[in-house]
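At this stage, I wrote out one protein, both as residues and as discrete backbone shape codes, and that material follows here.
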Amino acid sequence: MTTPPAGSAIVTRFAPSPTGFLHIGGARTALFNWLYARGRGGRFLLRIEDTDRARSTPEATAAILSGLTWLGLDWDGEAVSQHEQAPRHAEVALEMLARGHAYKCFSTQDEIEAFREAARAENRSTLFQSPWRDADPATHPDAPYVVRLKAPRDGETVIEDAVQGRVVFRNDQLDDMVCLRSDGTPTYMLAVVVDDHDMGVTHVIRGDDHLNNAARQMQVYQAMGWDVPVFAHIPLIHGEDGKKLSKRHGALGVEDYQKMGYPAAAIRNYLARLGWSHGDAEFFTDEQALDWFDLGGIGKAPARLDLKKLDHLTAQHFTAMDDAAALQELDDFLAATGAEPLTQRQRPLVAAAMPQLKDKARNFGQILERAHFVLTERPIEPDQKSAKALDPVSRSILKELTPHLQNASWERERLEAIVTELAAQHGLGLGKIAQPLRAALAGRTVSPSVFDMMVVLGRDESLARIQDAAMEH
């Protein structure tokens, strides 16, 4: 395997193109780079590959930065714009030209197409072989030209990939790639290598759709005499149907998952398990992921998106999550979905109820649904389903319950004992009183335990809601 120079620190990078949102596949690539660098005390860099000026937008760049920030993947230093490094890329192309590792090619597009048509007709390789490769500079015309890499024609280019293993490319199957266009602008293939070298990147961890690019990029490293980074090409993510992710699979962008109510920690855990494993561990913390993550744990087969697994992991993360952190992420969820923020009245009540709200929750939407009892105010309007529990008999029992609660010590165990005792006096199970109590306190059938709600709401508010419900309508 190719290794970085002795004594050098680990440096990884994430290099998205700002042509749209932060794709879930890109987010996983960023996570793998972040885990590998951070877990080894290295640096994680961000480069925006905005050389495609027609499709790159500031809005897409902002969406990528926002997505990474929400995921908690912090990067070192400022994000680098590839477009702004264009003079440096051109400088390297001209240096390769001066060293004899590149050449000026004056072939026009028509000539290149004519070459390929003739090759097809003769059943030869259509890989373009420029007649200018070994031409005497004295014969160069005064005409536009591109700068091509003078790639080796014989032998092999070998990538010792940390995930894919030894990958061999025959050099006679690789063309002399264009490094500098006729207008003097550098190509993406050159720019990537120059940027990675200049940024000191030691490990290039990216999707395996870039594996073929690695062979041609390796030739640039060799032409310049630069250290070759460790390559690690990771399999792509497929949908649950086993096909490459596309719009038909639904949510594709990181912001979609935030708006669906998943906490960032659960997404990090889930993405880490997409294509990487550590024994049988499914649920793990960031600290464990940073400690365990290595390139050897990445499989060669495509990973499959499975939202049921994500839901299961999310429930575990909510259980483990600090209540204050859950409240902060709930605020972020409300902002991301354009919902009203919590009011000064609601916030302390939601905070007090959070241990019950997040129990077995699979997203923040469910937490908000359970929190309805503190988000709403009197008079409580029960929905159609819970209103059925408030029949005349139930109202009568609620009316009877009120004096028992008025002077009780307001603790969960004592409240439960009072209600249980009253139920027994009527020959009823606890649930028969809990249902109308839930309708009185929350107006919903989905809520925390009635006793937990009473503790959070306090004596006065709880009694007022119960008395409201006990009244005939």
Remarks:
- Residues 1-7 have pLDDT under 50 and may be disordered.
- Residues 376-470 form a domain with the Arc Repressor Mutant, subunit A fold (CATH 1.10.10.350).
- The radius of gyration is 31 Å.
